[in-house]
Design goal:
Elements (H helix, E strand, L loop, with lengths): L1 E6 L24 E6 L9 E6 L5 E5 L2 E5 L4 E3 L13 E6 L5 E5 L2 E6 L2 E4 L11 E3 L5 E5 L6 E6 L2 E4 L10 E6 L5 E5 L2 E6 L4 E4 L9 E3 L5 E5 L2 E6 L2 E4 L10 E6 L5 E5 L4 E5 L2 E5 L10 E6 L5 E5 L2 E6 L4 E3 L10 E6 L5 E5 L2 E6 L2 E6 L9 E5 L5 E4 L8 E4 L2 E4 L11 E4 L9 E5 L2 E5 L6 E3 L12 E4 L6 E4 L8 E5 L2 E6 L10 E6 L5 E5 L2 E6 L2 E5 L10 E6 L4 E6 L2 E6 H9 L8 E3 L18 E3 L5 E5 L2 E5 L13 E8 L2 E5 L9 E3 L6 E7 L9 E7 L6 E4 L3 E4 L6 E9 L5 E12 L7 H65 L4 H30 L8 H13 L10 E7 L7 H21 L4 E8 L3 E8 L6 H6 L7 H11 L3 E7 L3 E9 H4 L3 H12 L5
């Protein structure tokens, strides 16, 4: 056996004179560390200086420009249009207490505040190196010059510089005001106390150079020099002993709020000095580079280190890790066990490690044993049961520095789990799970072995939990793919539960009782609770970030901790109890991940215990690089709300507004038809910017706050033209919300068709269309009524021209026959026969009239044929004088097809005119002339009869007769002109003139006419 002891400086000490913030008892490699490097493209060039303005932004001065950084995005700062910095080579930065950012370049000084850039002509062309603000608000500037440097003071915008008398040297290294109000300036000639009183030099053998100035805990001044750290006390400059007195070139000094001193070097990396202990972090173990250019502490206590290759941030982690650099014999840790005396035992690849009161002691197993030593269980006698990691070796008991084999346990495979009732004063009752069975050790000289075959399908048990009340044992399978929980007593399974009963799926890695005697099982499918035969499983459905649970531990401050495949989770005990009462509810959780120092595993290891709670309440658990510790009573909590800023508004990939400090935040007008709107925002919590959460709301569009998660932009598409107000709030990494947040107002201009006047015009047009449709409907109704009236008039005309006139003629003949009966019977009978013939003819005419109502004559024949047939029908019966006139039809011009509707009307007009000529004119000759002209169609009907009475021509018709009025109505309806000439005894001539555009059929109608003539309709 071999024992080795080392002092574990990295363990969290119980007492430390440094203030709380960055835990000063942690070693530098235990802080949460993140690096942004130039080689990764995060910055274009090296960072020379760092500052943080009151709005929360971190400003980085590089040799290629000024960069604004929010912890996630770095943006190259651009001055307002028409303005520029003296140079893009930024030497130094200073954030004043009034919010002014002072920018020192290699060609002059500028300041930026309230969206305004100010340059200082009196310092133009000078290389601005150190910048410092004293307690009175005066800005001190160092100007390297030859033959002598100058120190300038800027008050209320005016600068006053020291005379160049050659005694001060040529290069200022640093300017610093100590707690007593003394202002110090370092140069290559020595250390100058600049005020109060006249400047006084304290020479040094080696000038301090650009090493930096700071103050020790006792008020002494610390000076960084090319040969190491010096201390000024009582007017004397002496070496400040660290690292065994080895010299190192100091490049910068920073005293943090916790009392720790940070030293940047030229070739040794970064030093952290606190409580007399010095830690070093170099490029070889994580620093971006060994050459440190600048040091800075932000408002939340994080330390920023600029090197020639990038930027590093250090902050206090929630979970600290102890590894080989803190004294462990190996970083490969198998198990961890806290014992009743306050010690914590850590099993590693290279021996058993005991942590006790800040010291680590290492114990190695006897020669011939494997070097793995995993603590598994502490029995009532205080002995530590220790196993190896592979092969067939005995299980040892460790007591008083000695490893002794457990003789009652036969040799066999490495145990999966060892557990028992370890309460002091109780009888020995140890359970051991191995590949060859389950072993039960009591005070008997030999162990009781239970074969897995007797326990059903179980083949192994990674998780064991003895029940102290009845001596039974809860166990869970440990092989991949196996699942379920069983309770055995007297080598028999008394209860068993599986996924079908609601247990989490997959293997069971840990079992534990809670204060209510419920059994909790950590499974791959969630955390299951077994109580009185009822099972409920907590998983992602109830608020866990992932399902696979490795172990559960209840702390001393009413919280429960779960180690999951995706991190470490804290749940308030009250929330877990509420979930136990209602397993359907969702519970709030706090997740600690890699940014908090937690290393996660998809699958746990096969060595228990993986977690243990020490006597002081801290929880120790196995991690990927040693053993990790979390103190539930002292978890870093960020109480500073994050400043929130809206940075940019972009529409259609064009930037329309950018935040330039106090830039205009209202009446921002976006062009018409703006689409694909993106609003960039940020929150300045630099501790863990990846954990900042946002909520935003666009007044005028969003009904409620939108959870933006960690996203730093909001997107909107196709917003309507109107005014909007965008608001955003954020919470920091500890969940502290900035409820005020930030807001910006903007509007989208309407296109012409989105304006009110255009909408009003559309409304007016719509009303006009409705009014027009209403008037059109009235016109249609009027036309329908007029058409109905016209149809009635036409029917009246047809009845008058056919049936009534025929019946009237028959009536006259019947009256004549009656008068002749007494005197001349034969003539009366002849007259009566004529009357009967006239009546039959009238019936035929009525049938023809009805047929005319059902169909049109337009497609039956051309106009010449129709009028010829009409004249022949009318000429068969003699007129009242018994004469039969000579009738003929003559055509002039090239025959043309007439419009079907118009031909029917012209035919009816012509037929009525012929009826009047045959029945009333007493003519001996009747002639029809059809003239097909280019401009019009003319129809003339002449007779040599007795003519028409002038009164009839003047009045338009005889009483009771509707022939001429009907002709005039038809002519008007078809847009034709009707003329009539007549003289008593000289005959009558009528002329119907129809314009060619109305009279002649179009080509399509001509084709239809030809097709109709081939296949005439039969009615």
């Amino acid at each position: 056996m071999e024992r080795r002891s080392v002092v574990a400086f990295g363990v969290i000490l119980a007492s430390c004179p440094c203030a709380f913030g960055l835990n000063p008892s942690l070693r530098i490699n235990q802080y949460a560390h993140k690096a942004w490097t130039i080689r990764e493209g995060f910055f274009k060039s090296k960072v020379l200086s760092i500052a943080q303005t009151t709005d929360g932004y971190l400003w980085l001065g590089t040799d290629s420009g000024l960069v604004r950084f929010d912890g996630v995005r770095s943006v190259e700062w651009q001055p307002p249009a028409g303005e520029q910095l003296p140079s893009s080579f930024i030497r130094s930065l200073l954030a004043g207490r009034d919010g002014t950012l002072w920018i020192g370049t290699n060609r002059g000084l500028a300041s930026w505040k309230g969206g305004r850039l100010t340059r200082y002509p009196g310092l133009a062309g000078n290389d601005i190196q150190p910048l410092y603000e004293d307690r009175e608000g005066t800005i001190w500037v160092g100007l390297p010059k030859r033959p002598s440097l100058s120190v300038c003071a800027i008050r209320r915008g005016n600068s006053e510089c020291s005379p160049e008398d050659g005694k001060f040297g040529t290069i200022p290294g640093a300017i610093y005001e100590d707690s007593s109000g003394n202002l110090w300036v370092e140069t290559e000639t020595g250390l100058w106390r600049w005020r109060p009183g006249p400047a006084r030099l304290y020479p040094m053998k080696e000038g301090p150079g650009p090493g930096g100035l700071s103050e020790a805990a006792g008020g002494d001044l610390l000076i960084g020099t090319p040969t190491g750290l010096k201390q000024f006390s009582g007017g004397r400059i002496e070496a400040y002993p660290i690292l065994g007195g080895k010299p190192f070139p100091a490049r910068g000094l920073l005293r943090d709020r916790d009392g720790g001193l940070w030293v940047g070097t030229i070739d040794r990396g970064l030093l952290h000095i606190c409580n007399g202990r010095t830690d070093v972090l170099a490029r070889s173990n994580g620093l971006s580079d060994d050459f440190v250019l600048s040091l800075f502490e932000d408002r939340e206590g994080s330390i920023w280190v600029a090197t020639t290759q990038g930027l590093d941030r250090f902050r206090d982690p929630a979970v600290a890790t102890i590894s080989t650099e803190q004294g462990l014999s190996s970083s490969v840790v198998l198990s961890v066990l806290a014992t009743r005396d306050g010690s914590v035992w850590v099993g590693t690849q290279k021996g058993l490690n005991q942590w006790n009161d800040g010291r680590i002691s290492v114990y190695r197993r006897p020669s011939g044993r494997q070097s793995f030593a995993a603590p598994r269980f502490q029995d009532p006698a205080g002995r530590i049961w220790v196993s190896g990691a592979y092969g067939t070796e005995p299980v040892d008991s460790f007591e008083k520095g000695r490893f002794l084999p457990i003789s009652a346990l036969p040799l066999g495979p490495v145990p999966w789990s060892i557990t028992g009732n370890n309460a002091a004063g109780n009888a020995e009752n140890v359970w051991i799970s191995r590949g060859d069975g389950l072993f039960h050790l009591t005070k008997s000289p030999s162990a009781e072995q239970i074969a897995w075959a007797t326990l059903g399908r179980m083949e192994s048990a990674l998780a064991l939990l003895p029940d102290p009340d009845d001596g039974g044992l809860w166990l869970g399978p440990g092989l991949p793919g196996k699942g379920g929980v069983a309770y055995i007593k007297d080598a028999q399974i008394r209860q068993s539960y599986s996924a079908a009963d609601g247990l989490g799926k997959g293997r069971v890695e840990a079992l534990q009782f809670d204060r209510d005697r419920a059994v909790w099982a950590a499974t791959e499918g969630g955390l299951s609770r077994i109580k009185d035969g009822r099972i409920a499983t907590l998983s992602t459905r109830n608020g866990l970030p992932c399902d696979a649970v490795h172990w559960m531990m209840e702390d001393d401050v009413d919280s429960v901790w779960l180690y999951l495949a995706c991190g470490l989770v804290r749940i308030a005990r009250s929330d877990l109890d509420a979930w136990a009462r209602d397993p359907k509810r969702t519970i709030p959780t706090t997740v600690f991940d890699a940014s908090d120092g937690v290393t996660s595993f998809a699958l746990g290891t096969l060595f228990n215990p993986q977690v243990s709670k020490a006597a002081d309440g801290r929880i120790w658990f196995v991690s990927g690089d040693g053993v990790s510790i979390i103190d539930p009573r002292h978890i870093p909590f960020n109480r500073l709300p994050s400043p929130v800023h809206i940075e940019e508004i972009t529409a259609d990939r064009k930037t329309h507004w950018r935040n330039l400090s106090d830039a205009i935040r209202s009446n921002i007008r976006l062009p018409e038809l703006s689409r694909d709107l993106r609003i960039d925002y940020t929150a300045l919590s630099l501790v863990a910017p990846e954990k900042v959460h946002f909520k935003y709301k666009l007044d005028g569009h969003d009904d409620d706050w939108v959870d933006g998660g960690t996203r730093r932009e909001a997107f909107y598409n196709d917003l309507r033209p109107r005014s909007y107000r965008f608001r955003v709030i954020a919470s920091n990494n500890s969940g502290v919300w900035n409820e005020t947040g930030d807001s910006v107002e903007f509007s989208i201009a309407p296109a012409y068709y989105q304006t009110n006047w255009f909408r009003a015009s559309l409304a007016a047009v719509f009303v006009a269309i409705l009014w027009g449709l209403y008037r059109l409907r009235l016109y249609q109704l009027a036309r329908e009524f007029s058409a109905q009236t016209g149809e009635r008039a036409r029917i009246a005309r047809d009845l008058h021209d056919t049936l009534l006139q025929s019946f009237q003629a028959s009536l006259i003949q019947m009256q004549t026959a009656r008068n002749l009966f007494p005197r001349r019977p034969e003539e009366a009978i002849q007259t009566l026969d004529n009357a009967i013939g006239s009546t039959e003819h009238a019936i035929d005419e009525g049938r023809s009239a009805i047929q005319d109502l059902r169909t049109t004559a337009a497609f039956q024949s051309d106009l010449e044929h129709l009028l010829t047939v009409a004249g022949q029908d009318l000429g068969q019966a003699p007129d009242s004088n018994g004469a039969q006139p000579v009738f003929g039809v003559r055509v002039n011009g090239r025959r043309r097809t007439l419009s079907s509707i118009l031909q029917d009307e012209v035919y009816r007009i012509g037929r009525e005119a012929l009826r009047n000529a045959f029945h009333h004119a007493g003519a001996s000759q009747i002639e029809v002339e059809i003239i097909y002209g280019k401009r019009d169609l003319r129809l003339r009907i002449r007779d040599n009869g007795k003519g028409i009475d002038r009164n009839v021509l003047r009045d338009g018709a005889r009483a009771g007769h509707w022939g001429l009025p009907g002709i005039r109505e038809r002519s008007k309806r078809i847009g034709a002109r009707f003329d009539i000439w007549s003289e008593a005894g000289a005959g009558t001539e009528i002329e119907l003139t129809v314009p060619a555009s109305r009279a002649y059929a179009r080509r399509q109608e001509q084709r239809r006419f030809r097709l109709f003539r081939r296949k005439p309709d039969v009615v």
